[in-house]
Amino acid sequence: MRKINEIFYSLQGEGAHAGTPAVFVRFSGCNLKCIFCDTSHESGTEMGDEEIIEEVCKYPCRMVIMTGGEPGLWIDDALVDLLHKAGKYVAVETNGTQVLPEAVDWVTCSPKEGTVLRVRHIDEVKVVYIGQDVSPYLLIEAKEHFLQPCSCQNTEEVIEYIKKHPQWRLSLQTHKLINIP
């Protein structure tokens, strides 16, 4: 059984897949307590893998984004394999502190200061910018490096930072900006 906060269908609002229709599987619980976290992930419903697959398959898109909380606390090869058998492309949004199944198709890592990364493969790094030194995150091998304003509050500051450090790309939470449910 896995503790699920919610499963819903929407558009990915941020990062490399922004604008892509996706089923979001939001897991409950996290091993970190970030001051800027915008997710209430303490409560949830216990669901088995077949129940999760059944719910995910109600929607017409191929992409499934496992997020949280911290999905690395909950996912394993068995769940990823079932999603693949259902024809799904599996993306994970993680803080990087947990080892993920190798078969995940896309890994978005949002590393946090002072943590040790245990994830073995990262496709995109997405850092929520709150004025911290983000230069160490450019050393993480990934296809993309995104800097994101904190809850759309410091967008101008992030834009100016990226203009001075063009190794970064801007990621906006478009779902918040244009009220995508």
TrEMBL record:
Pathway per the UniProt entry:
Purine metabolism; 7-cyano-7-deazaguanine biosynthesis
The answer on whether this UniProt entry bears the keyword S-adenosyl-L-methionine reads yes
| Alphabetical keyword list | 4Fe-4S, Iron, Iron-sulfur, Lyase, Magnesium, Metal-binding, Queuosine biosynthesis, S-adenosyl-L-methionine
InterPro entries the record matches: 7-CO-7-deazaguanine_synth-like, Aldolase_TIM, rSAM, rSAM_sf
State whether keyword Iron applies: yes
**Chain positions recorded as Mg(2+) binding sites:** T39
What are the protein's GO molecular function terms? 4 iron, 4 sulfur cluster binding; carbon-nitrogen lyase activity; magnesium ion binding; S-adenosyl-L-methionine binding
What does this protein need as cofactor? [4Fe-4S] cluster; Mg(2+); S-adenosyl-L-methionine
Tell me the residue numbers annotated for binding S-adenosyl-L-methionine: F36, C37, D38, G69, S110, P111, K112
EC code(s) of this entry: 4.3.99.3
Q: Which residues form the Radical SAM core domain?
A: 17-181
Instruction: Detail which positions bind [4Fe-4S] cluster.
Output: C30, C34, C37
Transmembrane feature ranges: none
Report which reactions are catalysed by this protein: 6-carboxy-5,6,7,8-tetrahydropterin + H(+) = 7-carboxy-7-carbaguanine + NH4(+)
Pfam families linked: Radical_SAM (PF04055)
In this chain, substrate is annotated as bound at: L11, Q12, G13, R26, T67, P181
Q: Per its database record, what is this protein's job?
A: Catalyzes the complex heterocyclic radical-mediated conversion of 6-carboxy-5,6,7,8-tetrahydropterin (CPH4) to 7-carboxy-7-deazaguanine (CDG), a step common to the biosynthetic pathways of all 7-deazapurine-containing compounds.
Family under the similarity heading: Belongs to the radical SAM superfamily. 7-carboxy-7-deazaguanine synthase family.
Task: Give the quaternary structure.
Answer: Homodimer.
Q: What is this protein called?
A: 7-carboxy-7-deazaguanine synthase
Q: What is the organism of origin for this protein?
A: Phocaeicola salanitronis (strain DSM 18170 / JCM 13657 / CCUG 60908 / BL78)
Origin organism lineage = Bacteria, Pseudomonadati, Bacteroidota, Bacteroidia, Bacteroidales
